Amino acid sequence: MDYKNIDDAVYVRLDKGDEILSSILDVCKKEKILSAIYSGIGACDEIEVRTHIPSKNEYRYDRRNGVLELISLSGNISSDNNNNIFEHTHAIFSYIDEQNNNACIGGHLIKAVISYTGEILINPVREGVIRRIKDDITGIRWRLHELR
């Protein structure tokens, strides 16, 4: 992984074997970024996503290995009152299925390992902080709470 601050953004290049979420968090910790939005593209060979099923208050987990194009990655960095940072990321991946058709898989990103390269753009929040709190009403572990 390599990254560079240019203007008001952080450009991140991920290399084979880099895990996307831990890399984003590492950059944010090094750069003392408490709140941000980010997006990216790339190629992966191992992913895990999940989808929340509200009627059952459960998650469905999907894992896939192989040739996976990261066609859309978006997320945010927020922090708690102790300035611990959290990521919240959604992603869509394309692949060729068993019948040789194009297919997609997506959801809340749990893990994604780069197979060739990844390109992430982090846009830090410069004039405020996005805070997270526990959400007892919906059962979701965290929700955005305060935008300052």
Structural description of this entry:
The chain is mostly beta strands and 148 residues long. The protein has 1 helix and 8 strands; from the N terminus they run ββαββββββ. It has one helix at residues 20-30, and strands spanning 2-6, 9-15, 36-53, 58-79, 85-96, 102-124, 130-133, 143-147. Strands 1, 2, 3, 4, 5 and 6 form a 6-stranded antiparallel beta sheet that branches. The longest helix has 11 residues, at 20-30. The model has no long low-confidence stretch (mean pLDDT 91).
Write a short abstract of this structure.
This protein has 148 residues and is mainly beta. 7% of the residues lie in helices and 65% in strands.
Number of helices: 1
The secondary-structure class comes to: mainly beta
Helix share, percent: under 10%
How far apart the termini lie comes to: 31 Å
Total strand count, please? 8
Quaternary organization: single chain
Please outline the major beta sheet.
6 strands, antiparallel
- Average predicted confidence as pLDDT: 91
